[in-house]
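Lab notebook: predicted structure, single chain.

Context: the supervisor wants predicted structures on file for every construct in the current expression panel, including those that have not yet been purified. This is the next one on the list. No modifications to the sequence; it matches the entry in the shared construct table.
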Amino acid sequence: MARDRIEPCLYYICAGQCSKGRDADHRGYCQKCGKYVPRVKRKHINMKKQKVEKMRKNERY
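Prediction complete. Output recorded below exactly as produced.
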């Protein structure tokens, strides 16, 4: 799944309910739906990159 599609859909109500009339599941069909619109657009931090940078910073030769 794309990294920018982690946020719940604007039309997602709860498990199995979508205001567009589809069987919605936050982790499944809802985010693959053609009508998907994220509630919030925010930038996600690359945690893997941060951990690698932290390890490199602490390395000693």
